[in-house]
Input
Amino acid sequence: MQRSRHGRTGESHPNDTGPKAGRAKQRAFCISALPEGDDLSELHELLRTAGVAVVGETVQHREHPHPNSYLGPGKLDEVKEDLRKADANVVACDDELSPRQERNLEQLLGVPVVDRTAIILDIFAGHANSSEGKLQVELAQLEYNLARMRGLWTHLERLGGGIGTRGPGESQIETDRRLARDRISALRRRLEHVQGSRAVMRAERERAHIPLIALAGYTNAGKSTLLNRMTGAEVGVRDRLFHTLDPTTRSLRIDGRPYLLTDTVGFIRKLPHQLVDAFGATLEETKIADLILHVVDASVDEDEMIEMLKAVDDVLDEIGAGEQPRLLVLNKADALDEDRRLEVGLRHPNAVLVSALTGGGIDELGERIQQEFERSLDDVELLLPYSEGARLAELHDVAGDFMEREDTADGVVVRARLPRTIAERYSRYSVNGARPA
Output
């Protein structure tokens, strides 16, 4: 089964999400080899975020893309005609293309071809603000382009006397590849240094014994808005994909107990491996979190929500965070009618329904977070010498209102409820064990 749509010159397709097609500098025609039932709505949204107009699309339903040309030869003839009618000047593919598929498509269609990975990398490049974010994006772009360099020098290859192994063309290819590999190595060293600095800051947080909560979820699910609502921060928020690239950590208190809340880059279906690898240091914050708040846009239909849930689960598994304690947060409750509220409540009974925009459900979310941590709390009774003032201050910060102290001749008796891992660090002060000297 196949379908295709196109718009006329100067007109936008009814489903366009980008600028007006007639005025846009780049007018994209979308193609995909999809299983039955999928659509290109997410590709449209990616292109809108990149500032590209969508003037048409063609989907060919097939089990696997054609190994040489992605779409079948007959379908490509139709696409070439549709491109002319739609006045498109670029073709956007919903999958990552092999270098061979990309070259063949450009030769057959006569226009530049970009794949899903290239579009996402372009968006990331435009949204990276910190030095670390820019390094991560550059690394991902170089690794993506390294395999595609050969096609840049085909005009020089014809000057050589060998079969793709001699001549100035091959020399230029190898020179560029060597420069790219050197730059990749340099970027990795710099990112390792940044990761080391992040590890030092992480160790400081661990010494303070403050629980870490990470916000994870599909891009544009409202994680940054939720961070602002819960912590009083003023992190920039916009209605576009991948607006947040750099991790942002803010502190909050729930019933007197301190927590750290971290927002990280949003996920997406078929997130390129280059980005998962490049943003490994950033995503590490999610991997080491004591609790992950999986934020989902509840205003979408149930099928789309399930796809988003699976996409995030897949990435969390890929970075080694699949086993971390998790709490499902259904955001954008303000956009739901009563019937939809009832439906999501029945389908996801253990989730918390909130509106980060209006503040609805935030108190309940705080209670659920507290309950999640209380499951791992131990009641302890400790005896600390008066010389351990710093330890007393740490305990007060961690236990908050769940701490009592009594001054005695032998020292300070502390009764508190502590996370199990933290309680173990104070075991030598337990009144049931050896008393401090």
